[in-house]
């Protein structure tokens, strides 16, 4: 007789029969690997895995040493830099895991990895067959993690973004299979039962009706077993986590109705509701498929970015052009970008000019002219011209990749109202279960033949699916709408806080102005030529990344600077030919600024005293006045580190009544704290270069520009196209999102409060309850999708 391996299900050859005790019995295994996996599972107290699994596991590796040697390649620095995010001793990686068949697999992987010394956090997404693992890289190596996963019968490798879209398609295909089967069977069962119920086939004798019941049972079973399978796994996961999720009453209703139908059919007595069962599963899958589609549509901004993730590039090495993988490019290498090609990485144009389409980054479809010295971003499409680009960041650290990660991060953060709804739905499920049990007991006294169906009607009609969908469906659609307009949210709960904002702080330089300074005046009391001081200033500023430094970049910088220092919000300093120089604001100078230089905003000082003053001016961004007019209902404040005359001039031009000048980062921070202490909800808009503390302190913060390091920025929202008028869009969509969430929650709670008494009173049959619950969920999803417009 053929014996199957208890672990992987393969046939066991007589000469390779290995044994160990599992679940209190002596089991057979096909190889030492499977036997060792079973031993590990039993010895670690995880034997319940074999109770919960729905399919056999993959065959385990036989040679552990050989496997570990093979996996050591993943400890290579180049692999780690590409796939692993590290901060201090903590490393994080996304893994694709093959062999995951059910929730039990995810549970087993999480429990086994958690036992490894050095593992900090593990999360397994069963449906996506992915795992997120965080570990201490001083205690554990990636190869050891992969080896440990392999030892328990699964195979893991680093997740690659290009698989993202394929995962969505795979989930969509599985959804359609379950939905299609449920729909097909529902039509057949409905036809049989409705025909018999309304006597459409003429007089039907009891034997024929019994035959119809058996056919209905046969057709309903695949719907219950296959189409409804995700409800069972979800309910089991919830119960295992000691919570009652919304799928618990669904599973109870399905189980009770199906089992009672089986007994009624077998004993040829009582009532069956096979048509209601099929319709229930079908309509529930329809509503969840619409939710899945809405989420998929909402995730298109991220998915589209991943589709635009460049795969190849043309590397320039001397006179040789070599096709290479975009992810292999390193900083300072040169690449050629021809017309019609995607820019492979973030970089600077060193030769050529072009017309670039950056719609997938900024939401703006107008072509942007780029010239020598301009920055280009990975994923931009070069429509016209040929560019030579110097790489400034690898593909992994490109703006495109960071945006994609931050969008996923934003979708995972919940606003307060969502957390409240989740907690309420859990308690509501418990209440529903209690009421259904009480209804059953009461109806046993009133009419025992109806007791079971009243309980089922209560379970189905009051299932809080709509409540569970209310917030996430609206939030995902709102975030998607903002993404399509070039607005990147880094945390989803920022949308909720924006609706409470009543105090707005605006930085001037780089925010209300373009941040492109020009030197319009040099006040020089000495006989030294202005050009000498400009060369000294340019030599020092060449080491700075502040926008002011760009104004001096037009001048020659012939001097070597040592001991360069930069002080946030004040200025820079350095030693040139043994002389110590300071360049910056008046507050940075060691001596008072004379009245003759009061019109200047940048000063140069040496060991011998104040040398000269420069007046740097900046252009206002377009549509700034229109923006300030739109923000009139709010308390708008201009907060700048620039000198008073310039700040006052900008405030007057834009129509801002409240302004503060010569504010250091510390002063700005105190201003925000003072506003918050007066019970204001503060929104701060800054350029993200030296406003980090202020942006972090504000209740909601917005920064401009896709060129900065988005992942490390303190802001909650990034305007990728630098268009300040998008503030109006953010306020508008945030208000609409809040309204939709309130509408959804109001409808969900109102429906349940209305339907519950009707179900308890026995006025609803199970099929009516099915229609009501499904319609409630559909209304919520459709209402949320209006936010996409």
How would you summarize this macromolecular structure in one to three sentences?
This protein is α+β, with helices and mostly antiparallel strands. The protein has 27 helices and 29 strands. The protein has 5 domains: 73-165, Alpha-Beta Plaits; 167-298 and 415-475 and 739-788, no CATH class; 330-393, Distorted Sandwich (Calcium-transporting ATPase, cytoplasmic transduction domain A); 487-513 and 620-720, HAD superfamily/HAD-like (Rossmann fold, 3-Layer(aba) Sandwich); 518-617, Calcium-transporting ATPase, cytoplasmic domain N (3-Layer(aba) Sandwich).
Total number of beta strands: 29
| Largest pleated sheet | 7 strands, mixed
Overall form: elongated
Report the radius of gyration as a whole number of Å. Answer: 33 Å
Taken together, the total number of domains comes to 5
Poorly predicted runs of 5 or more residues? 298-308
Strand order of the largest sheet: 17-29-28-27-18-25-26
Mean pLDDT: 77
Described by its quaternary structure, the protein is single chain
Helicity, as a percent range = 40-55%
The count of helical stretches stands at: 27
CA-CA gap between termini: 64 Å
The portion of residues forming beta strands comes to 15-25%
Structural class: alpha+beta
Characterization of this structure:
The protein has 789 residues and is an alpha+beta fold. It has 5 domains: 73-165, Alpha-Beta Plaits (2-Layer Sandwich); 167-298 and 415-475 and 739-788, no CATH class; 330-393, Calcium-transporting ATPase, cytoplasmic transduction domain A (Distorted Sandwich), CATH 2.70.150; 487-513 and 620-720, HAD superfamily/HAD-like (Rossmann fold, 3-Layer(aba) Sandwich); 518-617, Calcium-transporting ATPase, cytoplasmic domain N (3-Layer(aba) Sandwich). It contains 27 helices and 29 strands. A 7-stranded mixed beta sheet has the order 17-29-28-27-18-25-26, sandwiched between helices. A 6-stranded antiparallel beta sheet has the order 9-8-10-16-11-14, with no helix packed on it. It has a 6-stranded antiparallel beta sheet with strand order 19-24-23-22-21-20. Helix 15 packs antiparallel against helix 17. The radius of gyration is 33 Å and the shape is elongated. The two termini are 64 Å apart.
């Amino acid at each position: 007789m053929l014996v199957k391996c208890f672990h992987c299900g393969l046939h066991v050859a007589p000469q390779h029969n290995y044994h160990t005790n599992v679940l209190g019995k002596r089991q057979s295994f096909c190889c030492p690997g499977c036997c060792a996996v079973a031993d590990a599972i039993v010895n670690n107290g995880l034997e319940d895995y074999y109770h919960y699994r729905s399919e056999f596991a993959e065959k385990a590796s036989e040679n552990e040493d050989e496997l570990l040697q093979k996996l050591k390649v993943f400890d290579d620095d180049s692999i780690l830099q590409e796939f692993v995010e590290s901060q201090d001793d903590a490393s994080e990686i996304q893994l694709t895991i093959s062999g995951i068949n059910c929730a039990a697999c995810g549970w087993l992987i999480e429990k086994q990895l958690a036992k490894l010394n050095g593992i900090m956090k593990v999360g397994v997404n069963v449906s996506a067959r992915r795992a997120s693992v965080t570990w201490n890289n001083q205690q554990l190596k990636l190869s050891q993690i992969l080896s440990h996963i392999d030892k328990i019968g699964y195979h893991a490798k680093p997740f690659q973004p290009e698989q993202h879209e394929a995962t969505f398609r795979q989930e969509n295909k599985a959804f359609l299979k379950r939905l299609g089967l449920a729909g097909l069977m529902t039509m057949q069962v409905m036809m049989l039962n409705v025909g018999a119920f309304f006597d459409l086939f003429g007089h039907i004798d009891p034997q024929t009706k019994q035959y119809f019941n058996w056919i209905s049972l046969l057709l309903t079973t695949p719907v219950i077993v296959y189409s409804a399978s995700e409800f069972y796994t979800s309910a089991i996961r919830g119960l295992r986590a000691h919570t009652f999720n919304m799928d618990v009453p669904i599973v109870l209703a399905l189980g009770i109705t199906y089992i009672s139908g089986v007994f009624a059919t077998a004993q040829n007595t009582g009532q069956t509701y096979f048509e209601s069962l099929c319709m229930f599963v079908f309509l529930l899958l329809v509503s969840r498929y619409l939710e899945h589609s809405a989420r998929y549509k909402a995730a298109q901004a991220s998915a589209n970015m991943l589709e635009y993730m460049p795969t190849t590039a043309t590397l320039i090495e001397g006179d040789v052009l070599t096709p290479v993988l975009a992810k292999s490019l390193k900083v300072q290498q040169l690449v050629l970008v021809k017309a019609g090609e995607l820019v492979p990485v973030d970089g600077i144009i060193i030769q050529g000019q072009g017309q670039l389409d950056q719609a997938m980054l900024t939401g703006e479809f107008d072509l942007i002219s780029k010239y020598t010295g301009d920055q280009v971003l990975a994923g931009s499409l070069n429509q016209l011209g040929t560019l030579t680009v110097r790489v400034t960041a690898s593909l992994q650290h490109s703006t495109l990749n960071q945006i994609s990660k931050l969008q996923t991060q934003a979708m995972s953060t919940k606003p307060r109202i969502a957390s409240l709804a989740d907690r309420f739905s859990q308690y509501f499920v418990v209440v529903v279960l209690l009421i259904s049990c009480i209804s059953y007991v009461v109806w046993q006294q009133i009419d025992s033949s109806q007791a079971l169906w009243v309980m089922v009607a209560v379970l189905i009609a009051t299932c809080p699916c709509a409540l569970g969908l209310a917030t996430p469906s609206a939030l995902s659609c709102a975030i998607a709408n903002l993404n399509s307009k070039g607005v990147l949210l880094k945390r989803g709960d920022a949308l909720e806080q924006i609706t409470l904002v009543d105090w707005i702080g605006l930085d001037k330089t780089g925010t209300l102005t373009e941040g492109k300074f020009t030197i319009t005046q040099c006040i020089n009391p000495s006989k030294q030529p202005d050009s000498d001081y400009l060369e000294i200033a340019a030599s020092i500023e060449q080491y700075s990344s502040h926008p002011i430094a760009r104004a001096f970049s037009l001048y020659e910088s012939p001097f070597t600077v040592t001991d360069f220092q930069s002080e946030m919000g004040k200025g820079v300093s350095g030693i040139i030919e043994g002389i110590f120089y300071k360049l910056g604001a008046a507050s940075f100078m060691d001596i008072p600024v004379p009245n003759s230089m009061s019109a200047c905003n940048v000063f140069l000082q040496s060991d011998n005293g104040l040398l000269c003053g420069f007046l740097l001016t900046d252009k206002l961004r377009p549509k700034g006045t229109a923006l300030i007019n739109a923000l009139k209902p709010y308390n708008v404040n201009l907060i700048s580190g620039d000198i008073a005359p310039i700040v006052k001039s900008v405030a007057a031009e834009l129509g801002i009544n409240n302004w503060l000048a010569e504010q250091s980062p510390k002063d700005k921070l105190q201003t925000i704290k003072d506003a918050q202490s007066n019970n204001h909800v503060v929104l701060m808009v800054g350029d993200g270069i030296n406003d980090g503390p202020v942006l972090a302190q504000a209740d909601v913060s917005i920064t401009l520009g896709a060129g900065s390091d988005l992942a490390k920025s303190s802001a909650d929202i990034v305007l990728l196209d630098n268009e300040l008028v998008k503030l109006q869009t953010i306020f508008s969509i945030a208000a609409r999102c809040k309204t939709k969430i309130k509408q959804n929650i109001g409808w969900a709670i109102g429906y349940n409060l209305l339907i519950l008494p009707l179900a308890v009173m026995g006025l609803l049959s199970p099929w009516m309850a099915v229609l009501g619950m499904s319609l409630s969920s559909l209304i919520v999803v459709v209402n949320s999708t209006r936010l996409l417009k």
